[in-house]
Amino acid sequence: MKYVRFIDKASGQPAYGILGDDMITEIDGTPFDSGWKLTERQIPAEEVKLLPPAPFSKAVCIGLNYRDHAEEFGLPIPETPVVFLKPSTAAAAHGDAIIYPAMCHRLDYEAELAVVIGKKAKDVSESEALGHVLGYTIANDVTARDLQPKNGQWTIAKGFDTFMPLGPYISDEVDGSCLMITSRVNGETKQKSNTSNLIFGIPYLISYISRVMTLLPGDIISTGTPGGISGMQKGDTVEIEIEGLGILKNTIA
Ligand code: MG
After folding, report:
1. Cα distance between residue 87 and residue 111, in whole Å
2. DSSP state of 191
3. Does the reported pTM lie above 0.90?
4. Residue 62 alpha carbon to ligand 1 centre in Å
5. CA 142 to ligand 1 center in whole angstroms
6. Could you read off the pLDDT of 164-190 as tens digits, one per residue?
7. What is the whole-number distance in angstroms between the Cα of residue 4 and the centre of ligand 1?
8. What's the pLDDT tens digit per position in 30-62?
9. Could you tell me which of 139, 129, 152 has the C-alpha nearest to residue 60?
10. Domains within the chain, CATH numbers bracketed
11. How far is the CA of 61 from the centre of ligand 1 (A)?
């Protein structure tokens, strides 16, 4: 199924639905509850304002998880995952503007596969890990590249509002271990790889992180970006496409 989160026009509150070809069927509950039910209510997909599909308490992001991306920075291949967090205030939806911060002079996209946690995960083994996953979505780990080295750690460079576009939907129909991932700026292809090139795979990452912090339903793990990063300007359109997960599109404002 493909799960979307959107603003219900009648109530003005967030609602969840199942995305069909071009209609959304609203559900009673959330995909993170075991007892959700389909309602009779159908809405044309083009009429809704989408929200980030996962209302995360934390976005756990992995740095340098593709060999070619580590090489483009001249950094060694990590022996353990490089992990950082983005705040929930960084979330942005498909179609939202990414705000170019005044203190930044080089703003980069990073195409990433995001794992969406469906069931609380604490100290889970690699073999149990995928049982805690609701599905997958697309993330753009937007980065103020010029601020990254200055700070020693990455909270400032990656934590601005709108720096974590997510969506457009969560799918439980794909195998995250082998998906084509592509980014484009103004239609020009910038990154092209496959999630089979991840240095640390998804079950390992879930198990490793769950031994540090409890992963809650709605939390995401953004699995890192392939090589080919570069800058964006105000007015640019950035699209990230992952096989089976659609296209996450945002403009820079
Ligand atoms: Mg990244």
Report:
1. 18
2. E
3. yes
4. 6
5. 8
6. 999 999 999 999 999 999 999 999 999
7. 23
8. 999 989 999 999 999 999 999 999 999 999 999
9. 139
10. 2-50 (2.30.30), 59-252 (3.90.850.10)
11. 6
